[in-house]
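TEACHING EXERCISE
Course module: macromolecular assemblies
Task: Read the component lines below, then compare them to the predicted structure of the full complex.
Student: A.B.
Group: 4
Components provided:
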Amino acid sequence: MSTIHLKVNGESHTLDLDPATPLLYALSDDLALRGPKFGCGLGQCGACTVIVKGQAIRSCITPVSTVQNTEITTLEGIGTPERPHPIQQAFIDEGAAQCGFCMSGVMLTAKALVDKVPHPSEQLIEQSLAGVLCRCFTHARMMAAIRRYAAGVAK
Amino acid sequence: MNKAFTGDARAALSRRGFLKASGALVVGFSIFDGVEVAQAQFPGPVALSPSLAQLDSWIAIAADGSITAYSGKEELGQGISTAQMQLVAEELSVPFSKVNLIYCDTAYTPDQAYTSGSQSHPANFNKSNLGQAAATAREALFRMASEKLGAPVTALDAADGVIAVRADRSKRVTYGELVGGRKFQLALDPKAKRKDPGEWKILGTPVKRPDLPDIMTGRFEFVHNVRVPEMLHGRVVRPPAVGARVLSVDEASVRDLPGNVKVVVKKDFVGVVAAKPWQAVQAAAKLKVEWSAGTGLPKQAGFAEQLRQQPVRDQFLLDSGDVDQQLKSAASVMKATYFHPYQMHGSVGSSCAVADVRSDGATLWCSTQAVWYQKTTCAMVLGMKPENVRVIFRRGSGCYGLNGADTVTYDAAVLSQAVGKPVRVQLSRKDEMAWENYGNAYLMDERVALDAGGNIVAWDHEVWTPNLGNRPGTGTPGNVITGKLLGFSPDAFTPRSPAPPPGNFNNNSNGMPSYVAGRIGGVNRNTGTVASERVLVHTVASPLWTGPLRSPARLQNTFAHESFLDEIAAKLKADPVEYRLRHLSNPRLRDMVQEAAKAAKWDARPSPNPKRKPTDVASGRGMACVAYERDNGYAAMVLEVEVNQDTGKIAVRRIVVSNDCGPISNPDGLRNQLEGGALQGISRALGEEVTWDDQKVTSVDWRTYHSLPVGIEVPTIECVLVNRPEEEATGAGETSVTIAAAALGNAIFDATGARLRQIPFTPERIKEALATRA
Ligand code: FES
Ligand code: FES
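Instructor-supplied answer key:
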């Protein structure tokens, strides 16, 4: 075990962890965050996605020791039910979920893309989500929500 | 904010305190005031199911007029809880925001068996259960108001939870004043008048799901997020091969690991418990277990055809007795064989449960589709009385049927019992995928007799389907892997041949094609015209676990029926829509076919497209339809596809799906189900197949099991919703998934002249079909 410093959603935390612990476990267990979820633990589905340095990364395969003292943003870090982030609002408006388990992967991957490329082509959006799964297949609404968000950002 | 969606473990526990304090079956909690620290245990036996015949089992009204409804049909992501709240708000004339819904907690909610099989809409929106309870409550409130206000019931109106005299609105009384906090003590009245759909203001409208803001912002509590004090983390160690048994376990191999690791072994069940989840993961990986050799699996190549050689349990769904005769004397006969592989539920989140098992009782948080059956079967697993087990549903990752939710609940329960502390278990991706109860494989022979005019005069459908295990039901925990490892047996397979004559009409499996008459007891009960008909099902023993996966049996059978119908039409050079209509008698199904064709601007002509070219990208359109379980939802689909004939790649461009589920309770929820079902059907048709070697399942992650990711060129999906307020409510959520594979296969045929009879339609199979097309 060793001392690990994490900055998550604007707050600093000091944790006593095996440095090899995947970030996901620190977030969902030690910090009791609900946004990032364990889907596969293999970097194959996106359910555990968080944003680090503007990149959507997979926290299930990211050792905590590698993201110390960098800002980590989870789904709850970008907005709240009372004040949702515009991408969250777009997903609410489009009703773009069924069970809702996959949302971190879909929304944070798309947000990281649009933050970097404000007018993403359809192709680019599709490419960015090529490794994200939604087994409820709410794809059509998700794409509509991402387009809606991107259009708002472009304005 | 409606509270059903935000109630979390803490709130559910604090509610208990509230109920005890007030002595009434009325709630007034929300997550935001649920600050009471969770007590991990409930003293004393919980009551058995509240009576479905009693109003108080369904509806409670608090002093502030807020309504709490109790339901045995849970929210899996399909939107049914929103619709149920709309139903209650509508029948009781209160705003949607005044209704709370508690569902699937054996301490409070009525036993409505499973949330599955497209049964929630019919169960709670027709003349019984929740809908009828709300209507009964409304009439009771009117009677009380009449007495209180000194005016006849006919002179009263209700709006916003207030009953007033129509002629003098100053004479008014609120629901809270009439019953607040007290029980109704009334039986459900089957004659209580339901609101006429013409008057609906809330039901039938696209009310937004109130859980979405929490979901989108990471505040929603899934079962994966349930945390209780003193909770430890478990991990299971499954056998390395099917049928392998524990020979020895070396506990010393994990003794020095961090997290105070405990090893739990019970017969062939092996698991570990540690303080933290990562510690449990590592301990499970390092634990040395010696296993016996597996029992071996049959070769996957040739698996389909060898099903014909297995011992069978036979059942006739239909047998008019003259099919062989018709086939012999027909002008022509057509036949084809189809195969549907085992497929997975493959939830995005592997299954999870939290169990708190003490010597005097157990509490389980899980995402089972049947809390009451989990209660009785988990009691068997724990050796406890069912009344001492409380099961609380918490939403999991979308399950689409029997995923790992039941088995992981047993896992958590066994581990918690062994260590005397609450234990959370989430399965690894591999443990989820290697051991779930897969959707059944189907080998299907179709045969028809045609007359000289090209009409179908006899239809013969014969299937072989392997089966092992199922939902645990009320008393068979051995139907899922954990129960089996613990020494329970799955449902026995008892060969039986020949089959007894068909019993009562039952087309729940859609084994009967829509085009046959379904004549039983002298009455045509199915949706078609073909009078000479035989449907024979051979169940065989399965080497892999099986269980219901969204549209079980119905999807597989419909894939064969609807592809075959298309083949017949093509052979006769008939338009596939016209040819369908020629053999359909049911007006609702006929309407669906016509509505979908109209909306898609169906180009009426025979398939394949006469203008097709043999190379490059070809486009085509296909149709399929279903009367789901004969009378539980009607739908048709037109699908447009592009086929790259050089690479075998498929791009679905457009899907038009028509649907009739009786009165539409929430059009947006319905659309969401149809859209998701259609794409799930496409994913299953294009890539999904369980694979195995001679010892074990080999499709154990998302590299080896192929699901369409979000990042695809998503086709346009158009839904044609046909509202039928005069009919009974039916299911809807499994209709579009049922017809997608056939619509896709038919569209590929239309584009290229190549016929695909085996799912999934991989590029290799497509190329092979292209190379051998006529
Ligand atoms: S859980 Fe991290 S990618 Fe699947
Ligand atoms: S909404 Fe269920 S997995 Fe995406």
